[in-house]
Amino acid sequence: MTAVRLLFDEDADHRILRGLRRVAPQIDACSVIDVGLAGRPDREILTWAATEGRLLVTRDVHTMTAEHAAFVQGGQGSAGVVFIPHDVPIGRAIADLILICGASTAADWGNRTDFLPL
Question: What is the pTM of this model?
C-alpha cells in the first residue's frame, strides 16, 4: 500500500498547503514551486505528478479538467487530480486532504478526478 502524496499546483490556495504542513507534517505534500515546475504547462505538471505518483491538488477547473481528461485518454496514466473550489473553507480543505491521505492509497486515486468537499 503506497501512501497518497500530494502536489499543489500554482493555482491551489497555498494557505491550504501551509496549514496541512502545520497540522499533519507526516503527509508528504509539496508544491510545483518546491520542485521547480512553477510556470510550466499543465501537461508537464501532470506528467511529473504521474511519474512521481503524486495526487495533484488544484482549483484550476477551467483548464486542468480538460487537460487531465486528455492526459488520461492518451494512456499516460495519472496519479489523480483533486479540485478545491474557491468557496471551500481552508480548514475544511485541510481536513478533507488529511482524510484522503489517511483513508486511501495512491492506487485509489489513479486516473481519478474529484472535487472537495468530500
Answer: 0.95
According to the model, what pLDDT value does residue 49 have?
A: 97
Place of cell 495526487: 55
- Which runs of E-coded beta strand occur in the chain? 5-8, 29-31, 54-58, 81-83, 113-115
Q: Please, what is the Cα angle at 91 between 48 and 55, to 5 degrees?
A: 15
What's the total number of domains in the chain? Answer: 1
Question: Dihedral of the CA atoms 41, 38, 75, 106 (nearest 10)?
Answer: -150
What gap in Å lies between CA 42 and CA 60, rounded to an integer?
Answer: 10
Alpha carbon distances (Å) from 86 to 41, 90, 93, 116? 21, 9, 10, 10
**Which residue segment(s) compose the domain that 27 sits in?**
5-115
Residue written as grid cell 497540522: 23
Mean pLDDT by 10 residues, the chain (118 residues): 94 96 98 97 96 96 92 91 96 98 96 95
Cell of 60: 484550476
DSSP 1: -
